[in-house]
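User: Hey, quick favor. My workstation is busy. Could you predict this chain's structure for me?
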Amino acid sequence: MSEHALARIAEALERISPAPLASPDFCAANAFVWHVSPDRLEPVVKISRVDIDLLVGIDRSRDTLMNNTLMFARGHAANNVLLWGARGMGKSSLVKAAHAEVNAKVGGLKLVEVQREDLPSIGRLLNILRIAKNQRFLLFCDDLSFGHDDTHYKSLKAVLDGGIEGRPKNVVFYATSNRRHLMPRDMIENEGSTAINPSEAVEEKVSLSDRFGLWLGFHPCDQNDYLTMIRGYCDAYGVDISDEDMRAEAIEWQATRGSRSGRVAWQYFTDLAARRCVVISG
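Assistant: No problem, here it is.
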């Protein structure tokens, strides 16, 4: 074979096999987003989050998550955490706020966001984080759930159970979901009713949530908490409005939305701040 032909083959192989991922600079930021094709960790200079003191009505979950995160940041053993429950009640906001609060107290904790569709690549990510032994990493997957014939959950076992190598001691995994068992109830019932052995048909998927050491439940807020959230936002961002006017507007706002949650409270406050010409940042 000619030298020219060998050179062309070598070039083709280089195109097929991308160069190995360069060692990330974990000093570049406190947060990163994991991307694939090609694999890379992109630093996030400014994280979109709210102060932990503005998260109302979730005191027990807040304290439990803070304690777990503090233990991990200080080098102690910590649990993987599943934050599940009602939409818009601050699950992802709490994770990001706890990360900021713990970093302010201890420092050195890196937040790494992983998209659900990228879970099959999580083994490669763990290999990168495992090498950085002097760093502590909080892996975060928002809105985690699995549908029928979805096999992504199998990849998640690498970070929850760790396989032969075990989960890296410098990594903990936090996930949010609207579903406690990470799969729709009708899917559980359907698979159970049509299987030869109903308990075995769904055990593999349902047991995935059991691999989280901590379950933190989030439930719809009452009207007092809803109004307290808005008042907290007004005080924090300097929006002047009387309690009477705020109450009337906020109740009308939630009635038009057909729901009441922390997300709805923030949406009303955003509208209020715009009308009062107050600039806010999420």
